[in-house]
Amino acid sequence: MASDFISFTLQQLRISLAEATYDAGLTQSPDTVPRIAARRFRTHVKQLAIILRRLIMLMALGLTLDPVKVRERKAAECEGEPVVTKAQIPFSIALSGQTQFYTPDGPGFPEGGPGATGPVAVASLMRRFEALARILRHPEKYALRVARVMERRRRAGAPRPLCAPIPTYRLKPELGAAAAGLPMLLSEAFNRWNDSS
């Protein structure tokens, strides 16, 4: 049941991401899009990212981890200053729910400062699309990472995480039903949080 639910929700997330990209006009390869289209796209992608984080958490809680092998630390060949490059840092969706965007000059606003007007560059929107699509291509890899983090937190005595419902009225019915069911499934999965050793 859980694997069918996960595969169905992943499929619906992929469809919704493709539809949001098309609705925003990003498939026509423009340089800029209207600000209202960019705002709708960012809002929809943010909601999809929340659902994807919860789904990956559900996948992670269903995994059985192998014991961690302790590796010996290799001595650094040169203890000089680290090399800092000014390459553009891609947008990332943090699976912990906290997303930060940094430029070579420090924290920045990818779409301009608050109150900016005019069309929005497509590059910033495509970075969001790529970040979500990268996770959707191989969610198992990310679920394994989250499982290891959650296991460390559980062993450290962290309290059981909570999962509040999200509004689903703007989602397609299929994805909305899956998103509405995630808090209940996560609650059942977290029941083993304090019981396992």
Summarize the structure.
The chain has 197 residues and is mainly alpha-helical. It has helices at 2-23, 35-61, 122-137, 139-155, 173-190, and strands spanning 32-33, 102-103, 106-107, 120-121. It has a domain at 2-65 and 118-190.
Fold and architecture overview:
It is a single chain. With 197 residues, the chain is mainly alpha-helical. It has a domain at 2-65 and 118-190. The protein has 5 helices and 4 strands; from the N terminus they run H-E-H-E-E-E-H-H-H. It has helices at 2-23, 35-61, 122-137, 139-155, 173-190, and strands at 32-33, 102-103, 106-107, 120-121. It has a two-stranded antiparallel ribbon. Helix 1 (2-23) crosses helix 5 (173-190), helix 2 (35-61) crosses helix 4 and helix 2 packs parallel to helix 5 (173-190). It starts with a helix and ends in a 7-residue tail after the last helix. The mean pLDDT is 80.
Please render the helix and strand layout as text.
Elements: H1 2-23, E1 32-33, H2 35-61, E2 102-103, E3 106-107, E4 120-121, H3 122-137, H4 139-155, H5 173-190
Antiparallel strand pairs: 1-4, 2-3
Task: Using brief descriptors, characterize the structure shown.
197 residues; mainly alpha; two-stranded antiparallel ribbon
